[in-house]
Amino acid sequence: MQMSDEVIIPASRETVWRALNDPQVLKQCIPGCESITKHSDTEMEARVTIKLGPVKAGFKGAVTLSDLDPPNGYRISGEGKSMMGGAAGGANVQLTSVPEGTKLSYDVDANVTGKIASLAARFIDPTARMLAGQFFEKFAEIAASMEEKAPAAAPAMAAEMPEIAPAPVKVATAPKPKKPAVKSPAKKPTAKKAVAKAPAKKATPKKVVAKPAAKKPAAKKPAAKKPAAKKPAKKAAKKKR
Questions:
Q1: What is the pTM for the complete model shown?
Q2: Is 229 helix (H, G, I), strand (E, B) or coil?
Q3: DSSP element (H, E) containing 144
Q4: What is the CATH number of domain 2-149?
C-alpha cells in the first residue's frame, strides 16, 4: 500500500523538525501507541494496538529514523510483529517553509503479512490511509502549540529577571604630572668595630692518680714448736732389804 499527501502547519520549520524528533510527540500522534522508548537519537521501541475491521492486533517493534537532513526532512520507518502476523512500513517526510508556516509532505508505504493479511485484506488500505491522516493531523496540532509557547516563554523569562542598573561610566581624565621625588643623600656605611676575641683557654691535662695496688695477704708461717722441757728422772728408791 502506498499513499502521498501534504499538510500546512502554522509553525516554523525548526519547530516542526524538533517535534518530529521528540518521542513524546510521536507517542501522542501514532494511533493506538501504548508506549515508546528511546534508545538513541535514531532508534526507538514502540507498542501499538491496531484494529483492522473485525481483527484487533497488538504489535511490538522498532521505530527508526534515517536519511536525516535537518531541518529539511527524514524517513521514519517501523516494523512490528504480533500473534496474528507482522507489519512494516515507513514515511518519507519533507519540510518546506511557506508564508503560512511549514508545508509537510509525506509518502507512506506499508505492508502487512500473516493471518491478519488474509482475514482483513480489504480493510488494510482504508485503515492505513485513516491512520496516516490521524497521525499528521495530530502532529500539526501539537507542532502549532509548540510554536505558540516558544515566543510566549521568552517575555515571561525576561519579566522574571530582575532589572540590573547600568554601571556608571567612568570619564577618563588626563593623569596629573608627578613631581620628581627628592632623593635623600645616601647614608655612608658605618664601619663595624672589631671586637677583640678573648684568647682561647688551653686545656689543662688531667692528672692521672695512680691507685695503690691491692696488697696480697702474707702467708702465715707455721709457729716453731718449743722443745718440751724434760722432767728430771726420779731416782730409783732403794729397795729395802
A1: 0.58
A2: coil
A3: helix 121-160
A4: 3.30.530.20
